[in-house]
Amino acid sequence: MKTSTIILFLLIALLPVNAQTDTLKTQPLQGVTVSGQYIQQANDHYNCIPTSKQRKHSHSGYELVRSMMIPGVYVDTESGKVSTPAGAATLYINGREATFREIQSLRSKDVVRVEYYDMPTGKYAKDLAVLNYVVKQFKSGGYTQLDALQGLGYKCGDYNLISKYSFGNYNANLWAGYSNANPKEDMVSKEDYLLPVAVAKGSSSSGNDKENIGKYITASISNLTPKRTWMLRTSIEASKQWDNILNGKTEYTSEHGNLAFDEMQYSLSSTVKPTLYAYFQKQIGSSHNFDAVLDCYYADNKYNRDFLEGGRFVSDVDEDYFYGKFNANYSIALPKSNNLTFSLHEYMRVSQDSYRGSADYWQHLHSSETIFFVDYNKRWKKVMLDFNPGLSYLVYRLHGDDAVKHVAPRLQLSSSWMPDKLQRVRLFFSLGNTFPSLNTVNNVSQQIDHIMIRRGNPDMDNSTLLGPGFIYSLNYKQISAMLSCYYMYMSNAIVNTYSIEGGNIINTFSSDARSHQASTSLSVTWKPSASINVKMDGNFTYARVTMADEEQLRGWQMGLQANYYVRDFFFSASCKSLTRSLNNYQYHIRQPWQYGLSAEWSHNNLAVVLEVKNLFIQDNVLKRSLSSDLYNLSEQFRRERDNSYASLKLICSIDYGKRVRFSPHYEVKDSESTILK
Questions:
Q1: DSSP states of 337-377
Q2: Domain for residue 667, yes or no?
Q3: What is the DSSP letter of 644?
Q4: Fewer CB within 10 Å of terminal CB in the chain, N or C?
Q5: How far, in Å, CA of 543 to CA of 532, rounded?
Q6: Are 457 and 441 in contact (CB under 8 A)?
Q7: 101 belongs to a structural domain
Q8: What's the domain range around 379?
């Protein structure tokens, strides 16, 4: 018996597989034939075909992918984060990059298929993983959709309007929305300042504000022909975030006595951000393709913190921030299944910050990064090889300092082998780099409390990342499974450091750490029928950080999701085990068990969704801790969003016109900032 056949039988034996065949009928969809398998292997990706039931009961691109239960793909529908064993997935619509609002407003019934690239090549080579939505387009007419979500249990609402209209080859689009959430939070913390005379600080607070308000309006026009596509888009977004401690108590304890204070904090971050986006794509002959993106925005960022703890500590920061991105790809389809792609990426950031209050400071920062890739891909009948070298050049300069320059190579080597139509084995090795976030490479000092001062560090070095990986995937009738193993080493990892200056502890940043991370995960999806879908996930992670103080973490995580469809109704249940992680290479995070239940009625263009999470649970607590030579921290947060709450959502749409194959795209990204908080 062949080894591949033995592996196949072993994986199938993990589940009580029903002998019933998939009820999804054979039908042509954009060059993909669905015949019993909802996930099919192509040369360099997976074609994932949603069923009619999954389309009917999903009301965003995120909900659709979650319902499809693609092995190895994990979706947080609230935050819009899509993760894979390789890392965060980049989302595309018809080959053009998209982000949260676009995917959130995507109608599932317009999706033909989702292409999952777990080993991206060509124009996707810069990404860790890719999900590309292939969607239909309106020939004439369009649709307008309204959706409204209201939380029950704590203040939470999300309201959106999407309208699309097509006339010939042109598409006009309008998106607008408002959101508001304020999940209250209780906090208890203990801090140890290991000065020559040690000081212990105990703090507690209840009913803290964590309010977020967001507004946006976006309009675009695009033109699509078989050989050329262009798009222009403009938008304006505004957001505010409060992080207020309203009923705080603080006590400092040392051998010299105790000091007790009533603690209050008023913290507000706000952003107003206009954006401009342009896209152009041209098919040149039958084998050449060119596409380019210009994406830029201006952000008026403000940050205010007023902290009362015996004395008053104030930060008042105004920032003018400009971001510009230019990407271009030129692809050539060569004879004998060879492909060559040249990619250029240019990123520019300019910020001007004015700090007032307890510390007065003015800062001007300019940075630019240029990345060039060449991707060569060769395919045979059962084997694919990809060679992707690149080079990154980063320059940033603080006003009054010399420019800092970094040149770093990039490389990705990968290969895959398909012994048959059911299995695929992938091996890869990557070499990359990353740089310190811009809000840490400054000379600003901020008084956090009576003892702690936070300060940036402009002298940190860039990090080098390298590591191998292995993926085995299986798609057999009702079962799809993915087994993955990853290892990543990072030099010059950024960590917090602590030192004594006078009677204060200085918290700054250093790039002197080394990070080792390894993970093994197994994801299995079982579809005994079109009405029942089950997904099980398991993951083991090991992390080790070497520096002055060594940190280690080992942790298991399990997950389960089950969906049931019956006529116009849809029921879902999910749970996620307790998780442990090592954030910023030092902070140990413990997140509690989570589970959720949802029920939906959907008929024609009207849907009502009721969702409950952590029903009957009121004592879920998130824990965070840090230990160093001079400073120790232990915190517990009881957050309303981690305990019992519910939401009710109403979706209504009106169709007008005739549909064909593709739809336009827009992209929204969060505003960046260099403000030290």
A1: TEEEEEEEEEEEEEEEEEEEESS-EEEEEEEEEEEEEEEEE
A2: no
A3: S
A4: N
A5: 37
A6: yes
A7: yes
A8: 3-15+22-659
Tell me if residue 102 falls in helix, strand or coil. helix
Higher pLDDT, 551 or 638: 638
**238: burial class by Cβ within 10 Å (0-12, 13-18, 19+)?**
middle
Distance CA 49, CA 444 (A): 52
Per-residue model confidence (pLDDT) at position 7 = 35
Residue pair 60/68 in contact by the 8 Å Cβ criterion: no
pLDDT at 32 over 60: no
Phi, psi of 204 (to 5 degrees): -150, 150
pLDDT digits (tens, 9 = 90+) for 435-476: 777 778 877 888 888 899 999 888 888 888 999 999 999 988
CA-based angle 89:93:99, to the nearest 5?
55
d(CA 209, CA 240): 12
Average per-residue pLDDT in the chain? 85
- Residue 169 exposure: Cα atoms within 13 Å on the Cβ side: 9
Contact between 47 and 29 (Cβ < 8 Å): no
Name which of 398, 480, 505 is nearest 444 in CA terms: 398
Which residue is it, tokens 């799809």? 480
Task: Answer whether residue 31 shows pLDDT above 50.
Answer: no
Burial (CB < 10 A; 0-12, 13-18, 19+), residue 481, is buried
| Backbone dihedral angles phi then psi of residue 248, each to the nearest 5 degrees | -90, 145
pLDDT for 299 beyond 90: yes
Is there a domain that residue 664 lies in? no
For residue 118 the two structure tokens come to 């777990």
For residue 609, is pLDDT > 90? yes
What CATH number is attached to the domain comprising 70?
A: 2.40.170.20
> What six digits make up the tokens of 541?
């992670």
At residue 124, the 3 state secondary structure works out as: helix
Give residue 658's pLDDT: 57
386-401 burial string, b = 16+ CB within 10 Å, else e? bbbebebebebbbeee
Token code pair at residue 545 = 């950080």
DSSP three-state, residue 212 = strand
Q: Are 295 and 347 in contact (CB under 8 A)?
A: no
Query: For residue 671, is it within any domain?
Result: no
Say yes or no to pLDDT of 664 above 90. Answer: no
The residue type of 22 is: D
- DSSP3 helix / strand / coil % (the chain, rounded to 5): 5, 70, 25
pLDDT of residue 37: 64
Number of domains in the chain: 1
